[in-house]
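Journal club side-thread
Mid-discussion, someone asked how the predicted structure for our own chain would compare to the paper's figures. Pasting it here so we can look after the session.
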Amino acid sequence: MSGIVFFATEQHDAVVEFYTDRVGAEVWLEQVDCTILDFGGFRFGFCDRDHTDDCGILTFVSESKLDVDEMYDALVDVARDSPHENDTYGIYQFFADDPDGRAAEFQVFLD
C-alpha cells in the first residue's frame, strides 16, 4: 500500500514546474485538473483550484548531507535558511518556499 498527499493550488503550472524542474520530481500521473508527482517513492499532487492549500510541509529525505547541500545550491533563491544540523531531531536540513509559499524541507537523518 502507498499514499498520495494532495494540495489545491491557484498556480498549478508554476508549482508543478518548481517540483519537476528545480527539485527533480517526476510526473507520475496527469489527471484532468491534477498532477501527481513522484520523488523517490514520495507521491504528492497538485490540483488546479480557486484556492490554495499552503499549510503543511513537504519533506524530502536525502541520503547524504551532500545531497541536501546540492539541493540548497539549486534553491538558494527561495531558501528560508541555509543547511544546518538540528540536534533536536538528529537531522541536517533547510527549508525553502515553493511558488505557493508552501514550506518544502530538505533533510537527511544523521547517524
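Post-session note: Helices lie at 12-23, 65-75.
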